[in-house]
Amino acid sequence: MPPRLFEETVLPHLDAAFNYARWLTRNDADAEDVVQDACVRAMRFFSSLRDDDARPWLFAIVRNTWYSRVSRRPSLTEATPLDSARDQRPDDALDPEERLLQRHTVARVRAALEQLPVDFREVIVLREIEGLSYKEIAAVVRVPIGTVMSRLARARERLLAVLKPATRMETLP
């Protein structure tokens, strides 16, 4: 396998793989380790990539890497929450009050996602944040499409319950 082909095919998806790993691990440092191990595995097994879309293939490797680490070190499932400041990019089009409300909303959604069981969290992250199709998600998590659809529906229901309209006092930061 020419290294250039691997770089052109897989490396453009590293940011997305890291984002997915962060949602799985709930910890930046562990996510970095998972992605690094996954990249080594991806390079080793690059010949197993069957089509041109390396993104779901890489996500499956990230997921498998994470699960293999969790089985060795159960403490990974109790990792610290994501660093919410890392991905907050200011939107210059918003005034300070709107930015503050936006940050509050992002923090509420992030906290709600972190409350979901990992089976629900990973399918909603893959669908709503990473934009994978049901078929791609099914391949990544190794379940039938019907199970993906069911998990997504239940994850969305739980998110709605957690994010239900808050009282006026709860919405103020």
Structural class: mainly alpha
- Distance between the first and last residues' Cα: 53 Å
Kindly provide the radius of gyration, computed on alpha-carbon positions and rounded to a whole number of angstroms: 18 Å
The CATH level-2 architecture of the largest domain is identified as: Orthogonal Bundle
CATH homologous superfamily classification of the largest domain: Winged helix-like DNA-binding domain superfamily/Winged helix DNA-binding domain
The mean pLDDT is 82
The number of helical segments is 9
- Percentage beta strand: under 5%
Instruction: Please bin the fraction of helical residues.
Output: 55-70%
Structural domains: how many = 2
Unreliably modeled segments: 74-80
Q: What series of H and E elements makes up the topology? A: HHHHHHHHH
By CATH reckoning, the class of the largest domain would read: Mainly Alpha
Fill in the CATH topology of the largest domain: Arc Repressor Mutant, subunit A
Extended strand count: 0
User: How many strands, which pairing sense, and closed or not: the largest β-sheet?
Assistant: none
The rough form would be described as globular
Word description of this protein:
This protein is mostly helical and 173 residues long. It has two domains: 81 residues, Rna Polymerase Sigma Factor, Chain: A (Orthogonal Bundle); 85 residues, Arc Repressor Mutant, subunit A (Orthogonal Bundle). The protein has nine helices and no strands. α3 crosses α4, α6 crosses α8 and α7 crosses α8. 27% of the residues are buried. About 4% of the residues have low confidence.
